[in-house]
Design goal:
Blueprint (H helix, E strand, L loop, with lengths): L10 E4 L5 H11 L3 E6 L13 E2 L2 E2 H6 L3 E5 L8 H10 L2 E4 L5 H4 L4 H7 L4 E6 L16 H7 L20 H24 L4 E5 H19 L16 E5 L4 E5 L3 H10 L14 H6 L1 H12 L4 H10 L4 E3 L3 H5 L2 H5 L3 E6 L3 E6 L22 H8 L4 H10 L4
Parallel strand pairs: 1-2, 1-6, 2-5, 6-7, 7-8
Antiparallel strand pairs: 3-4, 9-10, 10-11, 12-13
Helix pairs in contact: 1-7, 7-8
Amino acid sequence: MHADGPLSGVKVFDLSRILAGPYSTQLMADLGADVIKIEPPVGDDTRRFGPPFVEGESTYFLSVNRGKRSLVLNLKHPQARPIVEKLTLWADLVVENFRPGVGDKLGVGYEALSKLNPKIVYVSISGYGHHGVEPYTKLPGYDLVIQGIGGLPALTGPEKGPPYKVGTSVADLTSGLNAFGGAMAALYAREKSGKGQHIDISMLDGQLSLLSYHASAVLNASQAPGRLGNAHPSICPYETFPAKDGYVNIACGNDGQFEKLCSVLDKSELVGDERFSTNAARVKNRDALIAIFNPILESRSVDDWIEKIKGVGVPCGPILPVPESLAHPQVEARGAIIEDDHARAGKVRNIGSPLGFAEKSYAQYPAPLCGEHSEALLADVLGFSSDEIEAFKSAGVLS
């Protein structure tokens, strides 16, 4: 790993913790940014999220903190102020995901830091955003709760069963992606204006954006979507079917693909059936079509059907367990899984950057131990003397 990535030279003062913020700043580190991660004396909460652990290190923490240097800093201590000021003058970007108002109380809010460095790009990530109505602007953001308010579980799960959240922390991860994109746009704008700005990322905004065509159906046609299991509300057949030994996903995106699928299933007569001759008709008569297809597809194995259906150009595929997904030949061919050397956990393997650069990570460091770089950063980056560092340690600023 090396430091000549597209964000080489960009300096990030990372006040974030848990998932959304660290995911965002790991994306920055993967592109070569210099990220200083500020941790409270007890460390980022995710250091204790587990099992699983590897040599005492949480795999959760390891998944989103590659490429950062850790500085333990008690922000509540009044003598932390000189360190905060030097970090602010050093940084291009600040990323935080405190509840709105908490950063201000700690002296690290946008107003305070932008007075020190007017060029700072300050990215806030919170559950409901810094602007809006109370009590929401004061509430913490938890993925499960935000998913529910954002409508995703109302779309996820069996048609007649309970609502399900998405299986990964999609509210956190989406807001992390939005924070990354917003930060990059603000840095580009600064190149033209010379000014920084405050980017207000709301987890709820991110969930609403994922509603996409579902939201459009409500807002423009007053048609509220419901749960359809793995089926698509506007395309048919586009869902998961049972095979003899598992499940197969079939995605017919147009009438031509439907005709090809019918030929493979020896049901070409369905193409001329007025109930199924167009996509709109198939959506309307979904239950009747699926009742015809299911017993046919249950007669052969997943691999048999994938070979046959792909052979005529209809998109299809299996549903893989996560270990098999990670071992997929295309994953290996793209070098999507990378490895680094952690001081305690040894060789650590994780997903590399998804941002499309040939190098999957330009990060110089593995996920850090808590406070691993505190003294070196104070001395080498921020310019404090050994006596000053000892004074910080004696006062409890660093612990």
